[in-house]
Design goal:
Blueprint lengths: L5 H25 L2 E9 L2 E9 L2 H16 L2 H10 L4 E4 L2
Antiparallel strand pairs: 1-2, 1-3
Helix pairs in contact: 2-3
Length: 92
């Protein structure tokens, strides 16, 4: 079996390093915003913290967590998600 030229190995190694760098960078960008969101539904309240690349994504993620825990079934979950959160605050 023939040996690969040395420059091909360097190019492959550089490509691997670049790929890891892009993955780390994109992961850090996705968790830029962090909020605690409280939702009240059917007399119960739940607060969850979530992160996202934008305010809207972080709030929606936390609201989805809250509604999954407060609602029974898909129909109630959709009704819960249509209600605005009772509170939203930045989380550290």
């Amino acid at each position: 079996m023939a040996q690969k030229p040395n420059h091909v190995r360097w190019i492959m190694a550089l490509g691997g390093v670049l790929l890891v760098g892009v993955l780390v960078y994109s992961s850090l960008q996705q968790t830029h915003e962090r909020y605690e969101v409280c939702v009240s539904f059917k007399g119960a309240t739940h607060c969850a913290t979530a992160t996202g690349s934008t305010y809207d994504q972080a709030v929606r993620s936390a609201q989805e967590i809250d509604c999954q825990l407060l609602a029974n079934g898909r129909d109630e979950n959709m009704v819960c998600l249509d209600n605005p959160p009772t509170s939203i605050r930045p989380a550290k």
